[in-house]
Design goal:
Blueprint: H1 3-29, E1 32-35, E2 38-41, H2 42-57, H3 61-64, H4 66-73, H5 88-99, H6 102-114, H7 119-143, E3 146-148, E4 153-154, H8 157-210, H9 222-241, H10 243-272, H11 277-289, H12 297-313, H13 320-324, H14 332-339, H15 341-361, H16 364-370, H17 377-386, H18 392-423, H19 427-446, H20 450-493, H21 499-505, E5 511-512
Family: Belongs to the alanine or glycine:cation symporter (AGCS) (TC 2.A.25) family.
Subcellular location: Cell membrane
Membrane topology: Multi-pass membrane protein
């Protein structure tokens, strides 16, 4: 029996068993209501409303404190002797690597096909709102993190939900918090294995096959798939063994490289078509308020744009605080401010560059997709670049590989923290997880398991419901932390001695073995 036959049998068996479950779960999580001729997923509205609430609650912190956030990333307000494992820049790149991925390439193309150019405007707006949500959840992640005896750090919703709710509501909050922590860990683990690992490897392998001769090319065989899977698994396994320091070291170089390659390519296409740039920008703005051929009109374009942004930057989902919690700082809000740059980079910059490139290049495949033809998002983006750079599919393949590897690495760290919360931090437990995670990377090149990937998406967005309720309840804590850090910044900028203040402001961090 050939390897292809075996993998096809596995795919069919898994799909047959899980398809009814995935459909049922998806129908619940992504339940939509009709609005002006189109469908609004309530989970997207939930995420957008959270962005609006937190933007108002914290006085548009994403705009007023943007420059301060950049200065914190640059190391201007680093604090000596802070607990943690990585600096602000490394924490940011580690978290960004988990959100910047194939969705920025393929998902945006789908958005501007369904919602027209105007979807880009609403995508940017949603990204700006998500910056406030990300600020809140990451501040809590650092506030309630645990520093272990070996200096490693654990954080995320599985920590700040139980600790924060206990602190604010006593025994009742403690019981609820423990339940939510287990659910959060299970949801992160499930999504990480299938969405953050298997799917990324599967899609990057598909792109590699497409530029090496297709199914009849050198990578199109089952042997080629197995080789690719083992290679990715080896890279991931080696980096995972080094923990967040190793991951941050890789992503701090990988993220700027992959973003740089992609943005430069976008700028090349835009520069060649610079005379069409004003009309492209005009079509994006006009399409946001007067779209043509879009179901639901303005609301249709808005919903598509918001949906793409919400799915892309993961603001409110509770995943990013896990990476940010490892930062070296004594003021949780300092990393919260750093984190608000994440949706800006992911959605406002990279997603917008993709959309603008497609609109200005106007490839034939995009026109066909807007008429209802079923065309893959990666194909549309690749064709847009191909109008100027015929060889770009090869560059796109490199970008996809970098995006995929960085995402797999970051979700490997997220998953390990969820795993150890559920099963303990022993060396045997961690090794078991790392072996399992690398095997999933191998499977990613051989299997599609689309049904389980669909389930993983639903599970991750279930976490958003739990997480954002916790963010609302704990927002006063974030307000205090922000005021504390801003006071520290004022004193430091004034040249005053802040060492004593740092010790007073520093919350006691629970240290565990």
């Amino acid at each position: 029996m050939s390897l292809d036959t075996v993998t096809s049998s596995i795919d069919d068996a898994v799909s047959g068993f899980f398809e009814p479950i995935a459909k049922w779960l998806g129908d619940i999580v992504f339940y939509s209501v009709p609005v002006a001729g189109t469908q609004l997923p309530l989970i997207v509205a939930w995420l957008v409303v959270a962005g609006l609430v937190f933007s108002g609650w914290f006085g548009l912190v994403q705009i007023r404190k943007f420059r301060l956030a950049v200065n914190v990333v640059r190391g201007k307000y680093d604090e000596k002797g802070s607990a943690g494992e990585v600096n602000h820049f490394q924490a940011l790149t580690a978290a960004v690597s988990g959100t910047v991925g194939l969705g920025n390439i393929a998902g945006v193309a789908v958005a501007v096909s369904i919602g027209g150019p105007g979807a880009t405007f609403w995508m940017i707006l949603c990204g700006l709102l998500g910056m406030a949500t990300k600020f809140v959840e990451v501040t809590l992640g650092v506030k309630y993190r645990e520093v272990h005896a070996d200096g490693s750090v654990s954080g995320g919703p599985m920590h700040y939900l139980p600790k924060g709710l206990t602190e604010r509501f006593g025994a009742r909050g403690k019981t609820l918090g423990k339940i939510l922590a287990v659910l959060a860990s299970a949801m992160i683990l499930f999504f990480g294995l299938f969405g953050g690992n298997l799917f990324q490897v599967n899609q990057s392998y598909a792109q590699l096959v497409s530029v090496t001769g297709g199914e009849s090319g050198m990578m199109g065989s089952s042997a080629g798939a197995l080789f690719f899977g083992i290679l990715i698994a080896a890279i991931v396994g080696i980096v995972l063994l080094g923990g967040i320091r190793s991951i941050a070291s890789v992503t701090s170089k990988l993220v700027p490289a992959m973003a740089g390659i992609y943005i430069v390519a976008c700028l090349v296409v835009i520069a060649v078509n610079v005379s069409d740039l004003p009309s492209a920008i005009s079509s994006i703005i006009e399409g946001a308020f007067n779209p043509e051929g879009v179901a639901g009109g303005v609301l249709g374009a808005l919903i598509v744009g918001f949906k793409r942004a919400a799915f892309s930057n993961e603001a409110g989902l509770g995943s990013a605080p896990i990476a940010h919690s490892a930062v070296k700082t004594k003021h949780p809000a300092s990393e919260g401010l750093v984190a608000l740059l994440e949706p800006f980079i992911d959605t406002v910059v990279i997603c917008t560059m993709t959309a603008l490139t497609i609109v200005i290049a106007n490839p034939a495949s995009w026109g066909e997709a807007r008429k209802g033809e079923s065309i893959g998002g990666v194909t549309i983006t690749s064709d847009a670049f191909g109008t100027v750079l015929p060889w770009f599919p090869y560059i796109l393949t490199i970008a996809v590989m970098l995006f995929a590897i960085s995402t797999v690495l970051t979700w490997g760290y997220y998953c390990m923290k969820a795993w150890t919360h559920l099963f303990g931090r022993s060396k045997a437990s961690e090794l078991t997880f790392k072996v399992m995670y690398t095997l999933f990377a191998v499977a990613g090149s051989l299997l599609t398991l689309q049904t389980l990937i669909d389930m993983a998406d639903a599970v991750l967005f279930m976490l958003a419901v739990i997480n954002i309720i916790g963010l609302y309840l704990l927002a006063p804590v974030v307000k205090r932390e922000l005021n504390s850090f801003l006071d520290y910044v004022r004193r430091r900028d004034a040249g005053l001695d802040t060492e004593a203040d740092e010790d007073e402001d520093q919350e006691p961090v629970k240290t565990t073995v």
